[in-house]
Amino acid sequence: MHYRIALFGILFGLGWIGCKTKESKDEPKKIAIVVSTLNNPWFVFLAQKAESKAKQLGYESKIFDSQNNTAQETDHFDNAIASGYDAILFNPTDADGSIVNVKNAAAAGVPVFCMDREVNANGAATSQILSDSYSGCVAIGKYFVETLNKKGKYVEILGMVGDNNTWNRSKGFHSVVDFYPGLKMVAQQSADFDRNKAMEVMESILQAHPDIDGVFCGNDAMAMGAYQALVAAGKADRVKVFGFDGAEDVVKSIRDGKIMATGMQFPEVMAQTAATFADEYFKGKRDFPGKMPVAVELVKKDNVENYAAYGEKE
Amino acid sequence: MPIAYSRKNFARFQSLIALFLLCLALSVLSDKFLSFSNLWNVMRQISVNICISVGMTLIVLTAGIDLSVGSVLALCGAITAGLLKNGIELPSQNLYIGFTVLGAILAGGLTGSALGAFNGWAITRFNVPPFVATLAMLTVARGLTMLWTGGFPISGLGDTFLFIGTGWFLGIPVPVWISIVVVALAVFLTDKTRIGRYIYAIGGNESASRLSGINVNRVKIIVYTIAGALAAVGGIMVTSRLDSAQPNAGISYELDSIAAVVIGGTSLSGGRGSILGTVQGAIIIGVLNNGLVLLNVSPFWQQVVKGLVILLAVIIDKSNGKNE
Q1: Is a pLDDT exceeding 90 seen at residue A229?
Q2: Model pTM score
Q3: What is the DSSP letter of A245?
């Protein structure tokens, strides 16, 4: 019984403190960063860069992790609006499922700036700063065709099959590669963006198709996993591996000639642009571009010296 | 405990038939399946699942469950990798502690054991249902992994360490050796020792065991500690295979592991089942994963097929229970 009384006491206390600190005039404005997942270094990087830029601009800022779950994201939005955040830098879990969250925030007068991934509704978000995955994979597809000399057998390793990005990347790649009848896809399997799974899937595929010439992976973690399976099978120098993201391991591997190419995204640029837009919004600016694409650049052996992980300049 | 033993033997028999049929079907459908290199692949891939499923079997035999294995695996792998790569630095004390491969592995193993012991303590001391206590640990250990790694993988761990996951010894991959040792120890524990008999007894009837003087709490804490330690072994193997500790390693491993236990004929209500049954369950899942990829089955269908196989196994298990 005493436990319960104490517990209620603590809860009331917390609630009271919560109410007290809300909205007094001279406090800095607060920016919420709602990110689809922190289970992937790429998104951790995106969130951290957004947070540090917001703090640098003099705002209070906090990261919310939606854990790839749109329902959780809705809770974060409700909480952020209720606890008086003034803007949301947003990396959506789902292009359609997240629309309602953005609209709710807009209705409550809280501007939303999307980073990396979009929501499929024009004008719902104040601005969307997007990574152009599709075009990036078109570029990878072109380079893939070129390196394989337009003929050969290849394998595609997909990310999570329920994820928009998986299919944007796959479609961009196939929009080029499918025009070359000499290039034959002998296996298309999913490894959930996971390095270990990609390694295991690749080991099995190599049993069925020991004579492949290339592998396209939906992200860099999987590219590393596939490459390790190829090394173990003694085929690493014959099979060409392509990734996407621009992660540290892969940039280094491209430099060493182990992996052929990746699509470099610029999470820092997107995060900082979003934070800067929020700053400008607070200062009265209202006309932002509805969509602002941030190009994905093809990184290969002969230009890798210009890049570091996640597009950071050293 | 003669009844438990006879039932154990039957469960062993039944999953062997399923495994045989599955292998037969796959070798007809794909000529690559029955090659040595492919079978070694399968064995190496399932060795992690075997390790954590052995721990899970012990827990399920006491009528408990452990949902935290995947997160504990990730944390232990990350701690081992972090200590190996960076050691511990305390700039304020001007102190740096480096770790040898053995030291880092021990630290990882101790972490797993400690978290397992904590699970057991929470379950027995506060009477928290195992499902809830380990669900909490699932989140806590994942969070600790994120804190330790900062959300980024720890890579580049050196060749000595890589031997654990990628090396060969006497013509057999090292991870397979590790899982053989783990299984042998666990079979000895369940079949030849007093604690093994207590584990079955507690799962069969906990209050009767308590009344007959078995220190139920102590046995449970031991069992959860072993499971934690085995999750650490799995984490170290995964980390070594990849030359990298991934913060999101081991997500949903608890499901694969529970599936292996259940397909292997161990009853989720405790008291009935065997380590060797679980090994067969793990092999069935591994063979299924491998076969579906060999046949290039669409990833959408793979999930459906795997789910149906698990369901089928449980249905067979249930109907056997009724017949007896």
Answers
A1: yes
A2: 0.78
A3: B
